[in-house]
């Protein structure tokens, strides 16, 4: 991994890559909430502790975005309103397509400054999917219906999304999403086909058993990438024979099953030549069945697949630290923009971590994202200072602190089991907060 232009302030990078798009339909040049201002306020809102619009407006009033503000009378006179109404309306006027363009340009700029981790001369990307809970509104439920179980229809809308992350830095590509339930529900494999087009040419794509099916493997190979997928035991037996050794590898020619040929007639004559690796790896309860088109030694390939766990940690961080567990937008456009801005914010923090790791000569994956996130929040006012000397000093100090924020390395097992205790509730799980019923007077 090579860091280019290391001394450059990464927060300034965001200002430079905001696309030049006409803001005419949102007001004239005297408006405060121009496109660069609003998009960076959305970013600061996602990076802030509570993620409220009021925090973003306070950052604007505190001078953190002075470099982006237009030269207007209200700005010169210090008459920017502290209310959130103007900012909220400006957020609503930005389209998801605009935020997609911002996301693509920002992540591309980060990738240009911090090269993706390459192994055996190829970029290595981790592939996985997750879900996110949405608000209960008519627009949301129409686009992302709620699920249903034995107790009936759920309350919250559910979005499914799939992402590609660099194996070492964690910097992501723009994700793909769709409804998890309802008549328009999409599978993770179909969403994964969309994100494949954003992967660098000739990448190694690593996926778990959910992606270890012939149709998707063929899509990966047809896109010019190399595949490394875990297979279910039943699929491995079908591919390698009725009995498989506990350890070993052998060449295979993977062809679609009768069911797959019926579902995908265009793949009837397709085949993929590769290797099936069977092993018992540390951290896996059962035998591991891997299919790959790579030619490296089996031990190296098994070790590389073990890196897939990093993406599980990335998704946990996005949901927990960056609050993607539940998106609070009240419309389809709002939640899509929230998701995209969160990916941009995540990429910027990961870029700081990669730069700090490069300076310290350590692996970025041993650094704590939560600590890096907190340090950037605490020091970002000085990073945005108009004084170039102060900015550079703060930048160097920040990278030094991040490089020392390492994850704990436990040599012993926990002395007590990890358990989750239930939390007490002050209110019942369901309650109607409407007006009280009228009572007859005596």
Automatic annotation (TrEMBL):
Transposase IS4-like domain boundaries: 120-346
GO MF assignments: DNA binding; transposase activity
Stretches the record annotates as Disordered: 407-442
Superkingdom of origin: Bacteria
BP GO terms, sorted: DNA transposition
Chain intervals with Basic residues compositional bias: 428-442
SUPFAM superfamilies referenced in this protein's UniProt entry, alphabetically: Ribonuclease H-like
Identification of the protein by name: IS4 family transposase
Source organism per UniProt: Terriglobus albidus
């Amino acid at each position: 991994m090579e860091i280019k232009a290391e001394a450059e302030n990464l927060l300034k990078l965001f200002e430079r890559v905001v696309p030049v798009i006409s803001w005419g339909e949102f007001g004239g040049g005297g408006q405060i909430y121009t496109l660069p201002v609003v998009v960076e306020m959305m970013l600061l809102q996602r990076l802030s502790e509570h993620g409220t619009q009021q925090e973003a407006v306070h950052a604007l009033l505190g001078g953190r975005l002075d470099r982006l503000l237009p030269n207007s009378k209200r700005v010169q006179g210090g008459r920017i309103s502290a209310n959130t109404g103007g900012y909220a309306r400006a957020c609503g006027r930005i389209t998801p397509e605009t935020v997609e363009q911002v996301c693509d340009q920002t992540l591309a700029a980060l990738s240009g400054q911090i090269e993706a981790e390459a192994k055996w001369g190829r970029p290595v990307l981790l592939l996985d999917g997750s879900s996110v809970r949405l608000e209960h509104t008519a627009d949301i439920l129409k686009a992302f219906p709620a699920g249903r179980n034995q107790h009936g229809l759920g309350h919250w809308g559910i979005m499914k999304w799939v992402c590609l992350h660099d194996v070492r830095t964690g910097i992501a590509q723009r994700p793909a999403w769709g409804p998890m339930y309802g008549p328009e529900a999409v599978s993770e494999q179909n969403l994964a086909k969309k994100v494949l087009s954003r992967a660098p040419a000739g990448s190694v794509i690593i996926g778990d058993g959910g992606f270890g099916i012939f149709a998707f493997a063929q899509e990966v190979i047809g896109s010019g990438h190399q595949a490394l997928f875990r297979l279910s035991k039943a699929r491995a037996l079908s591919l390698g024979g009725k009995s498989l050794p506990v350890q070993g590898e052998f060449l295979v020619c993977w062809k679609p099953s009768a069911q797959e040929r019926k579902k995908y007639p265009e793949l009837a004559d397709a085949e993929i030549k590769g290797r099936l690796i069977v092993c018992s790896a540390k951290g896996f309860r059962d035998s591991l069945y891997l299919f790959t088109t790579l030619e490296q030694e089996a031990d190296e390939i098994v070790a590389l697949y073990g890196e897939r766990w990093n993406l599980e940690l990335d998704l946990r961080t996005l949901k927990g630290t960056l609050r993607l567990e539940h998106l609070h937008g009240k419309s389809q456009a709002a939640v899509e923009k929230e998701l995209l801005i969160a990916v941009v914010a995540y990429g910027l923090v990961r870029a700081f971590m990669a730069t700090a790791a490069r300076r310290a000569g350590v692996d970025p994956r041993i650094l704590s994202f939560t600590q890096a996130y907190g340090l950037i929040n605490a020091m970002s006012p000085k990073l945005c200072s108009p004084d170039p000397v102060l900015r550079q000093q703060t930048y160097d100090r920040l990278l030094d602190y991040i490089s020392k924020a390492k994850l704990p390395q436990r040599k012993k097992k926990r002395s007590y089991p990890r358990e989750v205790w239930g939390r007490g509730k002050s209110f019942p799980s369901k309650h109607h907060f409407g007006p009280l019923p009228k009572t007859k007077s005596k």
